[in-house]
Amino acid sequence: MDLHRPVGLLAATAFVIGSCSGQSDSTVAIDGLLDSEGQTVTIDRSADLPGQLIACLPESGEMTVQSFRADCVMPYINGLWIDPEGLLRPHTELAEAAKDWLLEKPSDGLWPIYYPEGVDSAKRDLDKMLADDKKLSRQVRVTELPDPEPKPSAAADSIYNQAGLLYLPNSYVVPGGIFNEQYGWDSYFIIVGLLGSAEWVVQHPTSKYWDVSEKRMVQLDETRAEELARRYFEIAKGMADNQAFMIENYGGFVPNANRIYYLTRSQPPLFAAESLLIYDFAKRYPHLAPYKETLAPYLDLKAEPTDYDEWIKHEILPAAHQYFKYFTDPETTTFGAHSNPRVVRQGRRSFYQFSPDGIGPAPEIVYSQLPGNTDLYAQDAAYLAATPEANPDQRFYNEKTGDPRYHLTQEFYLADRTVRASGYDLSGRYGAVGQYAADFSPVALMSLLYGMAQDLNEMAAIAEQSDPVSEEQLDELASTINDTMWVDEDNGPYYSDRLVKRGSPAQQPYLFGTAFYPLWAGVVPEDRIRPLLKAAQSEHTVTQNQVFYLYGEKGRITPVVKEETGEVQTCVLADPDNPRTCSDQYETESQPPAAMVSEANFGIPTSLVATGNQWDFSEAWAPVQHFASWGFQNSQQANLSIQTDSGWLSAVDIGFAKTGTIIEKYSAINPTQDVQVTSGYSKPQVGFGWTNGVYVEALQRSEL
């Protein structure tokens, strides 16, 4: 299977659900792995199994869930990290990395690669690769970025509406599926996984890994295990160095990903956190982490770092501090703005937002290779045109002042880009089409910035410098989260986003997976921990607010809003290339009350509201599990951390037993069912970087 291309799940022919008793010799029962009905998961050996499952199953008809994880899932993950046919994009294989599976290929047939203006080392590196590989020059086009970068524009010929890879100095791991670049916050979870895999193979030196290219299991010994661990670490550090390079050369922040059309927005800031993970690993395992310098040729440094303390001092801390100011400093601006649009001051408090700089529709939608993407804005416009209460004062849709293609306004596009920058794209918590997203300061971002401030001070201590962030600033951040983002409404109390747009009629977002971020950041007062956890563990009615679209004559789009309580309606007949569209036929299932945190769940669902968006009920995603599990640990709730990890591990295990692959998200109610998504990527994306990373760390915690 070619993991470089958009793919869905493999045919589910390998999976059988049933009791262990009476199994034939052709099945393998996984003892201890139970499906949503409480029955043991089995694999049909006589089916057309993928090679990674054939290679890992025992000759007997039974294996424990522990051996399934050690012999099947972990070898698969460990192989994906290091193989160009898997998730690795080697620095030397530019032709493959330059391919964009989201945007259309340029008309000249060449994939552009941009390097920073005046960075001669990058140009020399690219020139050498072109000289060494004559065929490469017929596949890519190398271009120097202008300095200063032009202001954002909605014009079709703007560089921000074109395909183009941003040069990075090191190899990196991509998420998988249609995502063929190094992403901003995905990289953190991938680095978590790479470092976890390094520890795993050293602790299990006689284990195996799946060679994706050769489609075989590779046996390790102590020597090869340490070599593999060093390779994982080298990739992890190289990815952090790549992000430091981006901060230095691409605008003072980590872009959404290393594509030119992402130069106007960032993602959740986790660069400082991932760098400290690398630093900590290097200190604990010095024999696995010899220092290797990769940034100095691109930076104006008086002396090249020779160890990790100097790396932090001269390369990582300055970049992390600059990135922190991108979000928090009123005077740090981009593209010549008069003030920082990400800083909102209300009274004596500062609130922070993602507030991207881009203008007009997101290029990965309007210039997408994916049919479902290209129809998204037309459908959003149809909904806003037909629903005046969702479009007060024609704020988001205006036939006179909106853009000529969709009549959507810049306020709508700011909200749309904001949701994409947040990483949680898309959900219904900011309105049916996300139109109010730019009106809020997200509790997730505020919590991440609090954690980042602490990380900056920790790095300053390593560098023997004074704290970049004062105790007063830290206290202000913590008090703002606690005083303004704690709500006691339906399904509460819980932490939620703060409305900061004056005069906006937007409603308070509902209980969402980001409610656990303050626990992770360590800012929750002790007397609030129990009420928050009680709300998260309490069963609530699963509500529905979902928009389908019907197509009529001459391309007319009619939105149909299905609002139900306790019943989830799903589309029966839909355009497979555009899952948001549906005939006027639905099937309705009665959904029993559910809890965000429950032993019955396969991970934590992102919300308890079914909207059809991929970041809502019932989908479980790796980032939510990561922050919640660590938040529970930080709050001395080890039982809930174990429960969260167990649910996530089971979701991935069951999915792997079914398909031999790992995907970007699972249903927290039943991981064997196809995800019910009408907004977002309905076909599960295979890989998958952050799923793998959070699986590895959850497995390691479960073995402690």
Topology:
Blueprint: E1 15-17, E2 27-34, E3 40-44, H1 51-54, E4 62-64, H2 65-80, E5 88-89, H3 94-98, E6 111-115, H4 120-132, E7 140-144, E8 165-166, E9 172-173, H5 186-203, E10 208-211, E11 216-219, H6 222-249, H7 271-284, H8 308-328, E12 343-346, E13 349-352, H9 363-366, H10 371-374, H11 376-386, H12 410-422, E14 440-441, H13 443-462, H14 471-484, E15 486-487, E16 494-495, E17 498-499, H15 517-521, H16 526-537, E18 543-551, E19 557-565, E20 567-571, E21 586-590, E22 609-610, E23 619-621, H17 622-634, H18 638-659, E24 665-667, H19 689-702
Parallel strand pairs: 2-4, 6-7, 6-8, 18-22
Antiparallel strand pairs: 1-3, 2-3, 5-9, 10-11, 12-13, 14-17, 15-16, 18-19, 20-21, 23-24
Would you give an account of this structure?
With 704 residues, the protein is an alpha+beta fold. Among the domains are: 88-328, no CATH class; 341-533, Glycosyltransferase; 543-591, no CATH class. Helix content is 36%, strand content 13%. The chain contains 19 helices and 24 strands. Strands 1-3-2-4 form a 4-stranded mixed β-sheet. The chain has a 3-stranded parallel β-sheet with strand order 7-6-8. A hairpin with a 6-residue loop joins strand 15 and strand 16 (494-495). The protein is globular. The two termini are 35 Å apart. Mean pLDDT is 92; it is low at 1-23.
Helix % is 25-40%
Strand content: 5-15%
Largest β sheet strand count, sense and barrel closure? 4 strands, mixed
Cα-atom Rg, whole angstroms?
Answer: 24 Å
Rough shape?
globular
Query: Using DSSP, what is the number of strands?
Result: 24
Strand order of the largest sheet: 1-3-2-4
Mean of the pLDDT scores?
92
Ends apart, CA distance between termini: 35 Å
**Which runs of at least 5 residues are low in confidence (pLDDT < 50)?**
1-23
Count of runs of 4 or more consecutive helical residues: 19
> Which structural class should the secondary elements be placed in?
alpha+beta
